[in-house]
């Protein structure tokens, strides 16, 4: 059972992106109502999944903690938080750092006490971008995040592959279980679909459907 706690985007935008990822229909076509068949198919599909979408309009630490506890009570084992900066007060940078540190520690405790996985996104301290290699210390509350989390990925680069696809490189900067180094993701802009790139990977090969081969997008 998965819970997705969102403090920024409206539910129709989130579900629209999920629909596009699942059906491989461009988001613009779904939003314009040109593919109601895909909307219906996705609606039938999502209702069968153990998935809870929670829009947190409170946008503070207290409301976030309450939403996580509610998700745990509902049986969630995987909880996504998008994203940490949304739930702390804006203003003085030093104060913001302190709040992110406190929030990361609170999330770690909730994860351990309730035996759940919490995946939380965090944004960069933009003052450091471009000055040196991006590390965990480049993030708000980075040193504390590095201490608290079990695994950390950093989106380190993007490269356009034509107009429709970007290749995104992620560095595995911390991982207590498994692979180190980096991995690449093919990001299809029209459908928001993301697939880990590999030397040889065919995700889908149906007529008139895009599919991946050798890390690139082709049309059948």
Question: What does this protein structure show overall?
Answer:
- The protein has 220 residues and is α/β, with parallel strands linked by helices.
- It contains six helices and ten strands.
- The chain has helices spanning 11-23, 27-31, 36-46, 61-73, 93-114, 142-148, and strands at residues 2-6, 51-55, 78-82, 117-120, 151-161, 165-175, 181-188, 193-196, 210-213, 216-219.
- The strands form three sheets. It has a four-stranded parallel beta sheet, with helices on one face.
- The model is unreliable at 199-220 (pLDDT under 50).
Give structural attributes.
28% strand, globular, disordered C terminus, 4-stranded parallel β-sheet, 220 residues, 4-stranded antiparallel β-sheet
Q: Can you list the strand order of the major beta sheet?
A: 2-1-3-4
Model regions low in confidence, pLDDT < 50 over at least 5 residues: 199-220
- Give the H and E element order: EHHHEHEHEHEEEEEE
Gyration radius (Cα, Å) is 19 Å
- Spatial separation of the terminal alpha carbons: 35 Å
- Our estimate of the beta-strand percent is 25-35%
Mean pLDDT across all residues, rounded? 83
Total strands: the figure is 10
* Fraction in helix: 25-40%
Continuous helix count? 6
Shape: globular
**Structural class, from helix and strand content?**
alpha/beta
Largest sheet: 4 strands, parallel
């Amino acid at each position: 059972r998965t819970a997705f706690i969102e403090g920024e985007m409206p539910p129709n935008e989130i579900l629209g992106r999920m629909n596009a990822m699942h059906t491989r229909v461009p988001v613009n076509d779904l939003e314009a109502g040109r593919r109601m068949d895909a909307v219906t198919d996705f609606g039938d599909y999502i209702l069968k999944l153990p998935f809870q979408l929670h829009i947190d309009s409170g946008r503070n630490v207290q409301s976030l903690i309450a939403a996580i506890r509610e998700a745990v009570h509902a049986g969630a084992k995987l909880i996504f938080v998008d994203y940490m900066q949304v739930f702390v007060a804006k203003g003085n940078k030093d104060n913001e750092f302190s709040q992110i540190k406190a929030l990361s520690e609170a999330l770690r405790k909730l994860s351990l006490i309730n035996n759940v996985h919490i995946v939380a996104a965090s944004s960069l301290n933009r003052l450091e971008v471009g000055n040196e290699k991006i590390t965990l210390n480049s993030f708000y509350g980075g040193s504390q995040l590095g201490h608290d989390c079990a695994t950390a990925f950093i989106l380190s680069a993007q490269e356009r592959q034509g107009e429709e696809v970007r290749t995104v490189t992620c560095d595995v900067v911390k991982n207590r279980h498994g692979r180190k180094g980096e991995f690449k993701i093919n990001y299809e802009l029209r459908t928001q679909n993301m697939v880990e790139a590999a030397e040889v990977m065919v995700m889908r090969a149906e007529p008139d459907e895009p599919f991946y081969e050798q890390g690139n997008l082709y049309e059948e």
